[in-house]
Amino acid sequence: MKKNQNVTIKGTKDGLTLHLDDSCSYGELKKELDLKLSESSRAGEDRLISVRVQVGNRYLTEEQQEELKELIRQKKNLIVESISSNVITKEEAEKRREENEIVSVAKMIRSGQVLEVPGDLLLVGDVNPGGTVMAGGNIFIMGALKGIAHAGCHGNKEAVVVASLMKPSQLRISDCINRAPDKDQDDEKREMECAYIDENEQITVDRLQVLMHLRQNITRLQGGS
């Protein structure tokens, strides 16, 4: 009777994908993975090969992930790009929920105050000069932005800043920094504007209407065409 394989190695145009069975013990998995990689390694192969590891419905601790990475790295020309699992902890699930949550706040952010949220921020109020708002996702300000706004503060370059009045002292999206361009229009005549990172990796400020074309997944709410 043929023994079930706990490790399947598939070659792709980007490198190797390792499918690791989630029903065997972790010890068995490591032993077979070491054997399979040793058999498939080519002597004299100098080219670095990217490896993606998929573990299915198996939860791996950080220590176990490091053990697998080290085992793979020992095969000289292999580099681990990612380890993906269908299983996450309650803490990880809570963190993801927070990052996808829209936090609504009704207040004025005064000079010296900092408001930070893990996901999207909907602020009903002004950000005064010297005030700062930060979000892991998008920032929507139903009021005047005259202070600092930092969207995508954990590295999300798709994040945007929207304000009824866009006159910030500084705009930041991910690791890009810029100021909104100065305009001579009166505040009362200003229309709602948005800031985003363009194809040149620069922050651009434009009419709000461009967002429906640039960021089609900007909201989970459904509206008209």
From TrEMBL:
Record-linked SUPFAM superfamilies: Cell-division inhibitor MinC, C-terminal domain (SSF63848)
Residue ranges of every copy of the Septum site-determining protein MinC N-terminal domain listed in the record: 7-83
Keywords, alphabetical: Cell cycle, Cell division, Septation
Residues in Septum formation inhibitor MinC C-terminal domain copies: 105-205
Example of a GO biological process term: division septum assembly
Superkingdom of source: Bacteria
Family per similarity comment: Belongs to the MinC family.
Subunit text: Interacts with MinD and FtsZ.
PANTHER family the UniProt entry points to: SEPTUM SITE-DETERMINING PROTEIN MINC
Role this protein plays: Cell division inhibitor that blocks the formation of polar Z ring septums. Rapidly oscillates between the poles of the cell to destabilize FtsZ filaments that have formed before they mature into polar Z rings. Prevents FtsZ polymerization.
Official protein name in the record: Probable septum site-determining protein MinC
Species assigned in the record: Cytobacillus oceanisediminis
Gene that this polypeptide is encoded by: minC
